[in-house]
Amino acid sequence: MLLYSIGKDSSVLLRLAQKAFHPAKPPFPLLHVDTTYKFKEMPEFRDRTCAELGVRLIVHTSRGAREDGVNPFRLGSWKCCAILKTQALLDAMREGSFDAAIGGARRDEEKSRAKERVFSFRDANGQWDPRHQRPELWNLFNGRIEKGESVRVFPLSNWTELDVWRYIEAEQIPVVPLYFAKKREMLVRGNLLIPMEHDVPRLPGEQPETVMCRMRTLGCTYCTGAIRSTASSVSEIIDELPGLRRSERENRLIDHDQEGSMESKKREGYF
Amino acid sequence: MTEPDVLRFTAVGSVDDGKSTLIGRLLYDCDGVYDDQLESVRKVSPAGLDLAFITDGLQAEREQGITIDVAYRYFGTSKRRFIIADTPGHEQYTRNMATGASTADLALILIDARKGVLPQTKRHACISWLLGIRRFAVVINKMDLVEYRRQEFDLIRQDFCGFAQRLSGCELEFFPVSALAGDNVVRRSERMPWFDGDALLSYLENVPIDGSPRMAAFRFPVQHVIRSDPDFRAYAGQIASGRVRPGDEVMVLPSRLVTRIRSIGAFRADLDHAFSPMSVALRLEGHVDLGRGDMLADPEQPPFLARRLRVTVVWMAETPLRLNQPYLVKHAGQRVCAEVCRLVSRLDVETLQEHDAATLCLNEIGDVELESHRPLIADPYCQNRTTGSLILIDPASNQTVGAGMIASAEEPAAPPLPAGGGRGLTVWFTGLSSSGKSTLSRAVYERLWAMGYKVELLDGDALRQHLCRDLGFSKQDRDENIRRIGFVAELLTRNGVIAVAAAISPYREIRDEIRQRIGNFVEVYANAPLAVCEERDTKGLYKKARAGQIPGFTGISDPYEPPLRPEVECNTDRESLAESVEKVMRIVQSRLSA
User: Fold this and answer.
1) Residues A187, A96 within the same domain
2) Which end of chain A has fewer beta carbons closer than 10 Å to its terminal beta carbon, N or C?
3) Which residues make Cβ contacts (< 8 Å) with residue A200, sequence separation at least 6?
4) ipTM above 0.90?
5) What chain B residue is nearest to A144 in terms of C-alpha separation?
6) In CATH, what number does B306-409 get?
């Protein structure tokens, strides 16, 4: 199964899968773990893409959790993410009896991801143990597992953000328009630009401002900030990237809940 | 898209040589670190900005202050992009060092100017060399702590050169550096006017990237067979080395048939040529049948096809290497069973001297003789890193326990010729569909092969796609099918080969006819009750037969006539595969030594 998050890395991954099996279709389905807090453009883009390419799509939402009123405003981003994403992904893996999940994570995104293998073993509970990873030499990957265990496979491990955009340009891969700069209504909190979606609670007296901006990464609306930018095409983004002084995931609130937090989430089964 | 120029290098050294600081320095001075990452590093550094913390990412490390695993880092300049594998210095993690070196073009070796060449420095250089690295940047670090004196630098250089003479074909460059202060890392330092070389970074930007496998002999391990409709068949994979054009002759391995490339498929259009490391879908002329693990190669310079190999192994598991025990070998596109049948020697990785040893323990390196159950299609590692490398997997724990670099193919001991002037033998497996004939015959075949006999497997299903593809399933056609298989078995037997044939062969009369013609004939009855076979239904044929989609299906709508006096009867529903194989082998061996 290929984990499809609708973002730019997933779009590249999907293209690679298409190419690998062309002229046949990829022999595995796409899985989207939908927290329902995504930008509304995202599911539209997802459904259109999958229909055009003729690939099978599974959308998994953790319904029980939704009914219990799990939302980032009440629980905070850490717990919300644990239930809506991490747990939902593990449930979907179990439900579909999937033994491998192919994902678009890259080692340059975040420091704990720098140590992830290309074939990353998960035990029967979906847990990652960074101290006991299988050695990985050359391009010889060990995918042997027992029933209930699984592997996460990261073909883009050695790609950088710039590589991804250059490939999107070369291959003319469609991406969600949220990546391109335009004037948007935003709540401005210090360096953070928070999109006005899903009734995000405002601070007293806070008013949205119109800001020329774009999304550098796409997650849930509350946890994904925008960056100020005028790059409105793929080639403008490629020109913009080398000059950026802030890292790609900086405006992902969840990565910074506590120092080293991505590693804790990964141990629990987050992608 | 033009392939961006990428240099992959590994950084190795002993504990506290300052590797992480050096990498941090390279990244920091090349603007490879974002402001928010620096803020995060400042927050956890005990005193100000500690560059080492940029690479020592994991929480656990922050407690211990040492790197625990291979960390990959990416940065670039206007000239080139770099991928660094930061591998740890302390001894018990040698396996990680080998991991980092396996994909590197160059090794950056750190030496503390105050300590000089240590046993571990030699160990790391040797491992890098064994993994095929021939270019070394020797960085003599902490020059600030020896007051930037030339004397220390010269002594260490001399010492290292003396030792490196044993590493044949190496190119060495030396750099006096202070990673902490930034001397000679990205910019040339004025504090060492006696040094007339470049700064480390400009060397890394300009050093040629060797081993571009485009010029080597063509190798294409098949990863996947694409069949998008019944008439379309293409072989997908990555070109491991060399280049290819439509019309080129290629050898198909293991069969050694030679055919031609019909077309090179890619996503948008067919290509007029392709080269390593491109991934393509190749179509071939004529009727050839390949699967995953097979290989296409240059017929002028074919790889070797061998079951017995001399391999240099880096042992990576807590449990020592066991001789004559099953391991799984992953090599190119295939996974096969193999045993280490002899430990030739253990290498002292500080001196590269060979010693006798009983086994290999964690982080030890040695030369072994490996025997695989099926032949590997391989090249020596020094000629081809892709077709020359393999990993060993423990079938019980699924752990990767060893990494191997193939040195050469070992000729098997001369095959014991069957007595009676090289007379052959036919071993004929008969039984219902799904009774276990194919599994059993393959196991017997592999066993005989492992013993060095000339042996051929004739599988009824496979032959129906080639030799007998014109035949149907009427009584007449079935008899003709068996006659043809019998004819091939007879030719083989007459020429001293052991023919292992597996076919339902439902009719007694035709089986006896074959027996008469061949003479030295062993009939094996794979006997499992119909209900069991139907339950197994390995090919889904019973279901179709019951649904009336296959007329005249043996056991359902056509009779099966069991042998009256088979030499061996295997009750595959009650015996283990090993038990059945033993039974067959007893009779076969008594016939061969008769």
Assistant:
1) no
2) C
3) A73, A187, A194, A221, A222
4) no
5) B398
6) 2.40.30.10
Cβ-Cβ contacts under 8 Å, B1 against chain A = 166-167, 170-171
Q: How far apart are CA B495 and CA B32, in angstroms?
A: 68
Does the structure show a pLDDT above 60 at B180?
yes
* Beta carbons of A23 and B36 less than 8 Å apart: no
The per-residue pLDDT for B414 is 45
Token pair in block for residue B151: 């004397």
**Domain limits, CATH 3.40.50.300, in chain B:** 6-206, 419-592
Provide the domain limits for residue A101. Answer: 2-160
Query: Per-residue pLDDT for A115 more than 80?
Result: no
Span A130-156, average pLDDT = 88
Within its chain, how far is the Cα of A48 from the centroid?
19
Q: What is the mean pLDDT of residues B527-548?
A: 89
Which among A34, A114, A81 has a CA at the least distance from the CA of A265? A81
- The whole-number pLDDT of residue A13 equals 96
For residue A255, the model assigns a pLDDT of: 55
Q: Does pLDDT of B152 surpass 60? A: yes
Report which listed range, A33-37, A242-246, B31-35, B236-240, is most confident: B236-240
Residue for token pair 């960056």: A227
Nearest partner of A142 among B392, B534, B155, judged by Cα: B392
B99 touches chain A (CB under 8 A): yes
The highest-level CATH class for domain B419-592 is: alpha beta
What's the confidence (pLDDT) of residue A189?
81
Contacts of A144 in chain B (CB under 8 A): 328, 393, 395, 398
How far apart CA A80 and CA A91 sit, in angstroms, is 16
Q: Are residues A83 and A30 in the same domain?
A: yes
CATH class of B213-297: mainly beta
| Mean per-residue pLDDT, A212-225 | 78
Instruction: Note whether A170 and A152 are same-domain residues.
Output: no
Q: Is B39 helix (H, G, I), strand (E, B) or coil?
A: helix
**Do A93 and A143 share a structural domain?**
yes
pLDDT of residue A264: 67
Kindly state whether residues A49 and A114 are assigned to the same domain: yes
Q: Which of A220-229, B24-33, B336-345, B477-486 has the lowest mean pLDDT?
A: A220-229
What is the Cα–Cα distance from B263 to B232, expressed in whole angstroms? 12
Average pLDDT of chain B is: 87
Domain B6-206 has CATH 3.30.420.10: no
B279 is an active site residue: no
Q: For B468-497, give the DSSP string.
A: TTT--SSHHHHHHHHHHHHHHHHHHHHTTP
pTM, to two decimals: 0.74
Among A18, A138, A264, the strongest candidate for a mutation testing the B interface, having the largest count of B CBs within 10 A, is: A138
pLDDT tens digits for range B396-434? 889 999 999 999 987 654 444 444 446 789 999 999 999
What is the DSSP code (8-state) at residue A133? P
Cβ separation A137–B98 shorter than 8 A: yes
Number of domains in chain A: 2
Both A83 and A125 in one domain: the answer is yes
- Across the interface, whether the CB atoms of B34 and A244 are under 8 A apart is answered yes
Q: Which residues of B touch A250 (CB under 8 A)?
A: 34, 36
Answer yes or no: do A175 and A49 share one domain: no
